[in-house]
Amino acid sequence: TGAFTYDPGFTSTASCESQITYIDGDAGVLLYRGYPIDQLAEQGDFLETAYLLLYGELPTKAQKADFDNRITNHTMVHEQLTRFYNGFRRDAHPMAILVAVVGALSAFYHDSTDIHDPKQRMIASMRLIAKIPTLAAMAYKYTIGQPFVYPKNNLSYAANFLHMCFAVPAEEYKVNPILADALEKIFILHADHEQNASTSTVRLAGSSGANPFACIAAGVACLWGPAHGGANEAALKMLEEIGSVDNIPKYIAKAKDKDDPFRLMGFGHRVYKNYDPRAKIMQKTCHDVLTELGIKDDPLLDVAVELEKIALHDPYFIEKKLYPNIDFYSGITLKAMGFPTSLFTVLFALARTSGWIAQWKEMIEDPAQKIGRPRQLYTGAPQRDYVTIDKR
Ligand code: CMC
Question: Transmembrane ranges (predicted)?
Fold first, then answer.
């Protein structure tokens, strides 16, 4: 008891004031610093979005050039950090590796961990945005047994990531600009999403004054779950399991069955009770990528399109306002680009790092913020006396 409300899952509790991201879940609107997500994804690039999230305004040409330059100065990781990878089994999930190596950054950069110094906060932010693609690509290379590929700083953010993932020594690798453009869009769509579970985790960890790199590692850990960032992986696995359009009704029935825990992965959202605006752009990007790669009849896409059609007309889904979310089409797109399923959530973490660090910075700079400390409703035993072990 006490003067507080019980709100499991924080469905009606605001934990902070924020000026970064606005969502109108009923209308299907998503704005970063006031700018609609579709305009940023169609017309901008990822580093511009990261700048916008961090600083609150779109950069001028000079500011953009300076920011891009600073980020590319930080893309390398310390050679000693590369040794962490060797401690993992080759079949480790790359998210397990990412949690560890992002956390390990906290042991490397002592000149950017004084959270009260705005300059150090900014260097920590840039280091994270710059190094996360390198760390993510290294996790991929490690699990497939290939040597790490160093960043190529004359490439765009997404193109450099493709290069680090798919270039092989002694072979010419040219980044396909259409794929780089699609990946840049995917990163923009995933960059921030206000106070979701992983962002709230980053803020909660940061509220104690913890090391910023360690706070982002906490966000990566939270994102891993299938109800959150792990959903893109789960959605693709589900489409593979369904396999063909004929099997869809069986899975729809399972999803509607109250006694069956099965859910249609990539459907439903805590905040969107309308079509997820990110899913719309994702669907188009998916078509662009498949067309570019000459994939005409992808059975997974057929299943996805049909599943969406059926679900959008089914009273269960209509009543519960369950629409496809961003993860529904992102899996098919990433798979077509050549990424293994186990890397999907890693790509999400890579993109979301820009939002996490912007939210962390906003929290640190907010004088109203104090250490996060939820209350509880105690439902355990009342006070009782200790019983010695021979009497139990
Ligand atoms: N398939 C079938 N039924 C569903 C689904 C689904 N995907 N999602 C929700 N429901 C039902 C649920 O059973 C419940 O029914 P009832 O009221 O009869 O008990 C009702 O809809 C409300 O669900 P909820 O779990 O109370 O809603 P929530 O806001 O807690 O959950 C969610 C949101 C995203 C966790 C959930 O919709 C879900 O598990 N979806 C599948 C996983 C997924 O795609 N997650 C990605 C989210 S978007 C990316 C991100 O933000 O990380």
Answer: none
